From TrEMBL:
Origin superkingdom: Bacteria
Protein name, per record: VOC family protein
Source organism per UniProt: Nocardioides pinisoli
PROSITE patterns per the UniProt record, alphabetical: VOC (PS51819)
A Pfam entry, by short name: Glyoxalase_4
Domain VOC intervals: 4-126
Amino acid sequence: MPRAVHHLDLWVDDVDRAEGEWGWLLGACGWQREEGLRSWAHPDGTYVFMEHSPDQHGTHDRLRPGVNHLALTVDTRAELDRVRAESTEHGWHELYAHRYPHAGGEQHVALYVESSEGFEVEIVVTA
């Protein structure tokens, strides 16, 4: 099956900090860093590219019109628990911790985290 999304461009304010945060999270979800680039590729070919553009203005606000969050996948609950346990030391803040792992509903197993710049990522168990 061909990939549904070709790529995503993330415009961030602090590229070095975001590279550490996102690089760790994408790697934990099975994405591979592309050599010499601020880019990570999923095994299906989808990639995420990160940059600070001179065209951007203001700060990211996921509650304004636009993309609210990105959802990634892991294969098992054990992987999700590991990401949860390690996320804080890599700059991520857990959202809805009191409802983990069912903040999205009883049949939905996921972790919700937010980066230091306010980007929300939902990590969903696919199994």
